[in-house]
UniProtKB/TrEMBL annotation:
Keywords linked to the UniProt accession: Hydrolase, Membrane, Transmembrane, Transmembrane helix
A Gene Ontology molecular function term of the record: hydrolase activity
Name assigned to this protein: Sortase
NCBIfam families in UniProt: sortase_fam
Keyword Nucleotide-binding assigned: no
Segments traversing the membrane: 12-33
InterPro entries tied to this protein: Sortase, Sortase_dom-sf
Hydrolase as UniProt keyword: yes
Gene3D superfamilies, alphabetized: Sortase
Pfam families for the chain: Sortase
Length: 210
């Protein structure tokens, strides 16, 4: 009887050890999973570009002439769309930052809106929900000059091209200032899990669609 109890105890300990190892691995992998997934898709796309299908004609292999992303159908009003990094988040209108950031991408109330021109400033959590999640700015650092960002706002699509990315101290407020030209400013915490700095991405309006 004692031997049987010892076997059961050892089995339980072994199972608990496996669960602990699995939980530890999960906690380690989850924070970096979006970056790993992004890298994987980038490598796949690069491989596909290097090895075009010989059965396709020259016209089929040529890149599209329209550099701006096509608007998705049935998009709900007021959304931020960044196809490159998988962001598709509602733009939340709220006076309280905690409420705004908990629901998606929060437009700074003092900033402008796309239909009025000027500087539209939107911020989001870098890491909040279990990744991958299309509401966070986890991969915002992957955006570079020339990349495209779209806003769906009051039944119109506003396409912006990134012109600048930078890191500024959290105390920097110049990114919130009005601009003469229609501008989109996105920012989030940097580095991840720290509020020391802000990762800022600035885009200029390229196209407005009904």
């Amino acid at each position: 009887m004692l031997k049987d109890n010892n076997k059961i105890l050892k089995a339980l300990v072994f199972i608990l050890e496996l669960l602990a190892i699995g939980l530890a691995a999960y906690l380690i992998i989850m924070p970096v999973w979006p970056a790993l997934k992004y890298k994987y898709f980038q490598l796949n796309q690069a491989g596909a570009a290097e090895a075009p299908d010989p059965k396709k004609t020259a016209s089929q292999t040529e890149p599209p002439t329209n550099p701006l992303p096509a608007a998705e159908e049935n998009i709900s009003l007021n959304r931020l769309l960044i196809a490159k990094i998988g962001v598709n988040a509602p733009i939340v209108e709220a006076k309280n930052s905690e409420i705004g950031l908990s629901r998606g991408a929060w437009r700074i109330p003092e900033s402008s809106t796309p239909d009025h021109g000027g500087n539209t400033v939107i911020t989001g959590h870098r890491f909040k929900y279990l990744p991958p999640n299309n509401l966070t700015f986890y991969l915002l650092d992957k955006l570079i000059t020339g990349d495209l960002v779209s806003l769906s706002w009051k039944n119109k699509i506003y396409n912006y091209r990134i012109k600048e990315t930078k890191i500024v101290p959290a105390s920097e407020v110049s990114i919130l200032e009005p601009t003469a030209q229609p501008t989109l400013t996105l920012y989030t915490c940097d580095p991840i899990f720290s509020k020391k700095n802000r990762l800022v991405v600035i885009g200029e309006l390229m196209e407005e669609k009904p």
